[in-house]
Design a protein that fits this description.
Blueprint: H1 8-29, H2 41-44, H3 50-79, H4 83-94, H5 101-112, H6 117-124, H7 136-160, H8 164-172, H9 177-188, H10 190-201, H11 205-224
Helix pairs in contact: 3-7, 3-10, 7-10, 8-9
Length: 225
């Protein structure tokens, strides 16, 4: 009871960065962006972008599954390494996250665009340029590259906490490597899988929402001024 005040910083953090932004989102959802008056147009207008939302969901699910397929073996391999090697590999995974999301994406654009590095190499061999950009494959590739660390790190955290004696006991009871993985490692790593899917699945939506609304509001304010 006497230590309840220790939760005060957490409560302040939740108010500032969770509840207040959520209230702002709700306010703008029922407010006209030009006049500021109350309206349901923003809610009813969602149906106009149903195809875009469905495509975004499909791309997000595809990118999440690919991240899971790639991230699980990587996380498992890291968890089997020595502690010093684990720390080094974690650093390599987190290092790209220190760079701006936009710069990382533009780097892929420089590689994949029609006059990019890859197509320049292809054309130098006398072949036609490849359609590497402005398609769903390029979008999924960019999302997998940017969000893969968010899948690997939760998986590594869950797998590294599995007691190795459990797998040894399963092997002593007659389980082969495949059965040991299915009956011991995979069920115990489900919290990491759930956390990784949650972290990766929702992230592709803001890159669509934020630019669209930011540009629209900027155009509105420029028209008013």
């Amino acid at each position: 009871m006497k230590r309840r005040w220790l939760t005060a910083p957490y409560i302040v953090w939740m108010l500032l960065f969770t509840l207040i932004p959520l209230c702002i989102v709700i306010y703008y959802a029922f407010t006209d962006y030009t006049t500021g008056s109350f309206t349901f147009a923003n809610i009813t207008g969602i149906l106009d972008y149903a195809a875009i939302f469905l495509r975004s969901i499909w791309l997000s699910v595809a990118a999440t599954l690919i991240c899971l397929i790639i991230g699980y073996p990587v996380a498992y391999a890291i968890a089997q390494c020595k502690p010093r090697t684990q720390r080094f590999l974690q650093l390599l995974i987190m290092l790209p996250m220190c760079m701006s999301f936009l710069l990382r994406t533009l780097a892929w654009v420089a590689l994949l665009e029609d006059t990019g590095i890859i197509n320049n190499l292809v054309t130098s061999l006398g072949l036609s340029p490849l359609p590497l950009i402005r398609n769903s494959g390029a979008v999924i590739l960019g999302m997998v590259y940017n969000y893969l660390p968010y899948m690997i790190l939760p998986l590594y955290s869950a797998i590294s906490k599995i007691d190795p004696r459990l797998t040894e006991a399963a092997e002593d009871l007659g389980c082969n490597k495949s059965a040991c993985f299915r009956k011991v490692i995979l069920p115990l790593s489900m919290p990491g899988i759930t956390a990784g899917i949650t972290m990766v699945l929702y992230r592709p939506f803001p890159p669509f929402i934020f630019p669209r609304n930011s540009v629209r509001r900027a155009l509105s304010w420029s028209a008013i001024s």
